[in-house]
Amino acid sequence: MDYVIAFFVGGAICAVVQILLDNTKLMPGRVMVILVCTGALLGAIGIYEPFAKWAGAGAGVPLTGFGNILFKGVKEAVDKEGFIGIFKGGFTSSAVGISAALIFSYIASWFFNAKMKS
């Protein structure tokens, strides 16, 4: 049942994003920023963590989950190190995910030849 919940929650988030892209003049980059900020905001007010526990990967994989991870990292670093944690926390909490994305995208570039849209 966990897989089904994760599938539907992740699909719902993607459907909302697609509706935003199709029915507004928002550019994809701005929609991604909205998702990250929404995840951080929901994490700050304490809603995202219980939601992520219920939804599993359906809430953790989209960009809202990335925003929540950034918020949690900054919060922990500020509690531990003070003001400097504002600058360090997001990097340390998301470093593994960002590194994995860079490494796997580099490996994928060996097999696929990206082209510009014309």
TrEMBL record:
**Annotated keywords:** Membrane, Transmembrane, Transmembrane helix
Q: Which InterPro entries match?
A: Spore_V_AE (IPR014204), SpoVA (IPR005562)
Pfam families, alphabetically? SpoVAC_SpoVAEB
Give the domain of life.
Bacteria
The record lists the membrane-crossing segments as 6-24, 31-48, 91-112
What PANTHER family does UniProt report for this protein, alphabetically?
A: STAGE V SPORULATION PROTEIN AC-RELATED, STAGE V SPORULATION PROTEIN AEB
Protein's recorded name: Stage V sporulation protein AE
Record organism: Variimorphobacter saccharofermentans
